[in-house]
Amino acid sequence: TNPGFVVRITQAGLDYANQQGIAILEKELAQLKLPDISGKSGKLRYTVSRLRLRDFHLPYSRITPIPNVGLQVSISNAFAELDGDWRVKFYFVRSHGSFNLKVEDVYIKITLRLGSDTAGKPTISTSDCSARISKVRLLLSGKFGWLYNLFHSVIESKLRKSLESKLCDNVAKSVQNELQTYIQTLPVTARIDDKTGIDYSLVAPPRTTAQSLDVDLKGEFYSLDHRSTVPFSPLPLAFPSDHNRMVYFGASSYFFNTAGIAYHKAGALVFEITEAMLPKDAGFRLDTSVFSAFIPQLEEMYPNMTMKFRLSAPTAPFLTIGPGGISFQPTVDAQAYAILPNSSLAPLFLLSLVRNVSAVINVRSGRIVGSVDVGRIRLSLKDSAVGTFEVEFLQSIMNYLTSNVLLPHVNARLDEGFPLALPNRIQLSNILVKYHQNFLLLGADVHFQPQ
Fold first, then answer.
1. Got the DSSP string for 198-256?
2. Which of 20, 64, 122, 445 has the most beta carbons within 10 angstroms of its beta carbon?
3. Which residues form a coiled coil (predicted)?
């Protein structure tokens, strides 16, 4: 299944995510709990207890996408410091004290496997982890210095092994508790208003290439009342190899066209124009006396009565996206009514309005926003209860009503926007918008807001 919406995280985006993740892991490792260690070496019995990590530093790390495997995180030159107490018994000699352990040149390699669950949410887990500590320095304090040499290297070795195994346990726990929990905040469905929502579920597990991580999403608007199958499929997206931003979103023409279908099915593509909505400088009134200049029968049948228009889309609008931008040619039915003295409506005539529309898209506050501009209307008469007439005479009035009443309403709604597929606490900046064949490319840099 081709996706309707694609998210691409570039190496720059992965590096930023790695930076945030390492900061969290550093805090987690500083809370590491190590078990007491006791043992016997010849006639010497020893116990190491109350092990406390003072800090853990991960100064160098690198994240690399591995094609068809996942993500590999390599941490090098990490170092830590911990304190504890020691106690020994050697024949009749007993001694105890405290120690400080400096751990240096720590290397950790983590492989992260990416997938998706049955709900279409992304998943992440640790598929492999190895930790190696190259250097430990044990500093003991106590009364009997000669005793230290008897168990110094044994405790160093035991502490190294204990810490190495605990590191990977903690990494796996951190990935499960922190990273997996966080990426599950990516919305599978986003409710837009009381009529429609967007399906952002994954259509396949995330894909890693040598340069990026790609996430294919359904990218489909749907009516909340009655969801039905879209009568066409998404086309393949020929994603360009741009890498100047941390993240790119590919919104296909399918994505936008399902919005038209969803709103049409929900009965939302209906708009009424009344006298009260005319701008003060309109220069005319919406009543039969104005229109009777072009339609003589109106004056006889409905003299001096207020009118209104009901605009509706007989079919869902269908747009095309190309290098030149977004364009479509919607058809609108405009039913004119006379408002009778008892407030009931008398149908007058039904016009078909066709005009070229161009759209401009942007991103603001994590939402896709836009505006449309319209060309000149082409009119035709579909039905009339007041006889035939030349529709060309209504051209300027209908141009005015659609441009000055309908268009501001449409643009106000488009300016509210539709939510992008973003996990929690993500802000986008440095927005880039490019038009390609059959899809819109949105690029951005990312800022994560910690809790």
1. EE--BSS--EE-SSEEEEEE--EEEESS-----SS-PPPP------SSSEEEEEEHHHH
2. 122
3. none
Same domain, 282 and 199: yes
pLDDT tens per residue across span 400-425: 999 999 999 999 999 999 999 999 99
For residue 186, give the nearest of 241, 247, 235 by alpha carbon.
247
Structural domain contains residue 4:
no
Q: Evaluate whether residue 5 is within a structural domain.
A: no
How is residue 143 annotated by DSSP? S
Q: Please, which residues bridge with residue 202 across strands?
A: 217
Here the contacts of 170-175 (C-beta below 8 Å, separation 24 or greater) are 170/28, 170/29, 170/32, 171/25, 171/108, 171/110, 171/126, 171/129, 171/131, 172/126, 172/129, 173/28, 174/24, 174/25, 174/28, 175/110, 175/112, 175/124, 175/125, 175/126
Residues 285 and 383 in one domain: yes
| Model confidence pLDDT, tens digit, residues 216-248 | 999 999 999 888 899 999 999 988 888 899 999
| pTM score, whole prediction | 0.91
Residue 204 has pLDDT above 70, yes or no: yes
For residues 321 and 207, membership in a common domain is answered with yes
Rg (CA), the chain: 34
**For residue 437, what are the domain limits?**
189-448
d(CA 106, CA 92): 38
Give the CATH number, domain containing residue 307.
3.15.20.10
Tell me how many domains the chain contains: 2
Do 147 and 193 have their domain in common?
A: no
